[in-house]
Amino acid sequence: MERTFVMVKPDGVRNGLIGDIVSRFEKKGFTLRGIKLMHIDRPLAERHYGEHREKPFFGELVDYLTSGEVCAMVWEGKHAVANARSLIGKTNPVEAVPGTIRGDFAMDVASNVVHGSDSPENAEREISLFFGDSAAAVYLFTS
Ligand code: CMP
């Protein structure tokens, strides 16, 4: 079984989309293995998006990711990385077809509601970055 890392980004959390997104993954057949509501700091955002460090939008991307709470999740299933990416839709919401998460809930590439790992190797790297050794734990936060 494969695992993938999925994160509802600050605009998704602000717009009340966590439940809808979790529901789509459950209905598709994924198993939830970890979930954590958190406010990430700049060093973690910069490590997570390290491969985009030289891109012109890197600063904007880090500002956005640290602008509010995110919901980090670990989902398990057959071909989890590829199946998650097809549920999520194209990176640019303009190209994401209706029925996908970005196709239904996002308008702009800079705030595209959700992140999904692009390879099994990156999935494991991102899971350790966000969950350490405790990806199996479910975290419940109260204010
Ligand atoms: P994500 O799938 O999380 O991975 C990298 C992110 O970079 C991507 O989603 C987008 O949110 C962001 N991104 C990609 N292209 C641009 C762009 N041209 N301007 C701003 N953000 C971008």
TrEMBL record:
Localization, UniProt: Cytoplasm
Entry EC number(s): 2.7.4.6
NCBIfam families, per the entry: PRK00668.1
Chemical reaction(s) catalysed: a 2'-deoxyribonucleoside 5'-diphosphate + ATP = a 2'-deoxyribonucleoside 5'-triphosphate + ADP; a ribonucleoside 5'-diphosphate + ATP = a ribonucleoside 5'-triphosphate + ADP
Binding site for ATP: K9, F57, R85, T91, R102, N112
Gene behind this protein: ndk
Signal peptide (from-to): none
Cofactor: Mg(2+)
Nucleoside diphosphate kinase-like domain sequence ranges: 1-138
Name this protein carries in UniProt: Nucleoside diphosphate kinase
Biological role stated in the UniProt entry: Major role in the synthesis of nucleoside triphosphates other than ATP. The ATP gamma phosphate is transferred to the NDP beta phosphate via a ping-pong mechanism, using a phosphorylated active-site intermediate.
Active site per database record: H115 (pros-phosphohistidine intermediate)
Family to which this protein belongs: Belongs to the NDK family.
Alphabetical UniProt keywords: ATP-binding, Cytoplasm, Kinase, Magnesium, Metal-binding, Nucleotide metabolism, Nucleotide-binding, Phosphoprotein, Transferase
InterPro entries, alphabetized: NDK-like_dom, NDK-like_dom_sf, Nucleoside_diP_kinase, Nucleoside_diP_kinase_AS
